[in-house]
Amino acid sequence: MSKTKGEHGPLSLFVPEPECRPGDHPDFSEMLIPKAGEARKPPVDVDPMEIHDLAYSVIRVLNKKHEAVGPWANELSDEDLLEGLRHMMTLRAFDARMFMAQRQGKTSFYMQALGEEAVACAFRKAMRKGDMNFPTYRQQGLLIAGGYSIHKMMNQIYSNELDPVKGRQLPVMYSSKEDGYFTISGNLATQFIQAVGWAMASAIKGDTKIAAGWIGEGSTAENDFHSALVFASTYKPPVVLNVVNNQWAISTFQGIARGNAATFASRGLGFGIPSLRVDGNDYLAVYAVAQWAIDRARRNLGPTLIEFVTYRAGAHSTSDDPTGYRPKDESSTWPLGDPIERLKQHLILRGQWSEERHTQAKAEIESEILQAQKKAEEHGTLHNGPHVPSGTMFEDVYKEPPIHLIRQRQEAGL
Amino acid sequence: MTRMTMIEAIRSAMDVAMETDPNVVVFGEDVGYFGGVFRCTHGLQKKFGSQRCFDAPISESGIIGAAIGMAVYGLRPCVEIQFADYVYPGYDQLASEAARIRYRSAGDFTVPMTVRMPTGGGIFGGQTHSQSPEALFAHVCGLKTVIPSNPYDAKGLLIASIEDDDPVMFLEPKRLYNGPFDGHHDQPVTPWKKHELGEVPDGHYTVPLGKAAIRREGNDVTVLAYGTMVHVALAAAEETGVDAEVIDLRTILPLDLEAIEASVRKTGRCVIVVEATKTCGFSAELMAVVMEGCFHHLEAPVIRVTGWDTPYPHAHEWDYFPGPRRVGAALKKVMEHG
């Protein structure tokens, strides 16, 4: 025994570390970035065994010259792309405004989608009415791209008297069945297996609707991610399983959830689930891959796992300061660029857009958001009210209040 | 009217619910082709097909999480957790999700789901097949928790649970599956076929959630019990001659406060009999309810008889289980006052 110990030396634990920390020069040179247009586009009924390479690659459409190239290109019209740009610009301006509102003390908390606007906005465009998203807290782009009222979103953020969820939830925890947006939990990953269950129900009923589950790369470590993949691979329901890899889970870099071995997309391969990796800052690529996966689901071909490679350019939330754990300028050196800038340049190249029109559109959007904000604030903000009457806190615990809640409400005098 | 075991009654409830409503689906570990390790789902897959009754992977969080998604869609899933002892991997889905989806969405989304699970000891199941975790559910606002004590109630309560628009935890005392076990483990159990509460209508009926039943009327002391302990309490009352009023709570949440208060105010004494561990158990809640609602009517301190605060032991099962001897002693003790 002692000889063996001498041969190999003492054991030590491997704890992954990111390439760069505050004070370091940001470095993404190790990141694999295939050329745009390089990834092949298989038919939707492909045998998952034949597309393992797509779980390790990155599907990209927009190249450095802002051209749309390769087999995943040319799926959207000029009008669609202009609308997509507007959605992303609206989301960014909305986020900026609400971030400021939190700083002004009008609400308790906010979370931006800064830098990853293309993921939710382009995915939503590939969905139909009746489909259901099971989102995380950073997919507000699904609502904006789906035409949900930003005034209503603000009412929720302010927990004011018009808040659709009656002041019960933290800001950004929206809910709208009508708009295919499942109530946000706030706990992580729980919604992923629920999306699979919803899709199983759609299949059991012979429906035509599909579900989309959403999760961040960090919370793929939760057991719900794994149970979702098990159930999805077993019953093959019409579900798209989306992993938004924005590199950072608060202060924890993606390597802690992933190890240094593989990609998040490749987690699906062991389950026999077709798994794709896509440039999450490329609106055209996100849309094309979403369309492919949704088409598979709609044709009863089963689940698809998608990893969106993107970057959380802002803080995790208004309670977070990323300068404590990553280089200050890391965001500006992110090699996949900015989704709005890239689509804007592509539209300019297509002759559909210009710097002037962009500046004008930005001003228009900001003005619309300001108007909506004024309107929302007329109905109250978190700290100044008015809110939905306090007595309503006793409602909706159950469909009908049981006797103990009736007594407690009486005791509270509400 | 047919005489049924509790297993047959539970199976009949699911059969009736599936016939009544095409949105009812049943799944869980071993429940499909085989029909469940306790046979509660036997024949359902054959009758209703594998789209409505099927086997699930060994993943309690997956079973409950998927059932939540189905319920959100509009189905009424009734899932089985093979033993209550195995529910913990799915607890987050119950406590953080199922219980709060109606509330956090202001009624936009709801979870009409039933989670069945065999509970309690008395079968030499050791610490992983004998637990009574009902307090962990009753503590979570938004869940309902039901524990029947006989075949008639089991069927009526299960149909009511499946038809309920809120998530219901349905705990089946496994020691009662075949007969009204009263804690006398050294004596044969009368089968349900020979018990009046084994008489179960074949068709659809419900027993309302939140309503207790008086199993034995009495004037001297109120015994609060549910599940297996109802039968232990009845035996103890007969054997001691104490004129006890035995209340079968049937649903611990919603709890029938009015029935408890009416009985304790009448008798002035109360013994609480619960199989689960004592500290922070549901027996503690019952005691608090009696203190809050009946203090000025009490003639003696309330006594609890419960499982000890240890894991459920294997070889020492009958020293752990709160049987008729301990309950009888408590009845006599509570009568010594006043």
Question: What would your notes on this structure say?
Answer:
The complex is a heterodimer of chains A (414) and B (338). In chain A, strands 1-2-3-7-6 form a 5-stranded parallel beta sheet, with helices on both faces. Chain A has 12 helices and 7 strands. In chain A, helix 5 packs across helix 11 (355-377). The radius of gyration of chain A is 23 Å and the shape is globular. Chain A is an alpha/beta fold. Helix content of chain B is 35%, strand content 18%. Chain B has a 7-stranded mixed beta sheet, with helices on both faces. Chain B has a 5-stranded mixed beta sheet with strand order 9-11-10-13-14, sandwiched between helices. Chain B is built from 12 helices and 14 strands. Classes of the chains: A alpha/beta (414), B alpha/beta (338). Chains A and B meet through helix 6, helix 7 and helix 12 of A and helix 3, helix 4 and helix 5 of B.
How are the SSEs ordered, and which strands pair?
The complex is a heterodimer of chains A (414) and B (338).
Chain A: H1 2-8, H2 78-103, H3 117-125, E1 132-134, H4 140-145, H5 150-158, H6 190-204, E2 211-216, H7 223-235, E3 239-245, E4 248-249, E5 252-253, H8 255-258, E6 275-279, H9 283-298, E7 304-309, H10 339-349, H11 355-377, H12 403-412
Parallel strand pairs in A: 1-2, 2-3, 3-7, 6-7
Antiparallel strand pairs in A: 4-5
Helix pairs in contact in A: 2-3, 2-10, 2-11, 3-9, 5-11, 6-7
Chain B: E1 2-3, H1 6-20, E2 24-28, H2 44-48, E3 53-55, H3 60-73, E4 76-80, H4 91-98, H5 101-104, E5 114-119, H6 134-138, E6 144-146, H7 151-163, E7 168-173, E8 199-200, E9 213-216, E10 221-225, H8 228-240, E11 244-248, E12 251-253, H9 257-267, E13 270-277, H10 282-294, E14 303-307, H11 317-320, H12 324-336
Helix pairs in contact in B: 1-7, 3-4, 8-12, 9-10
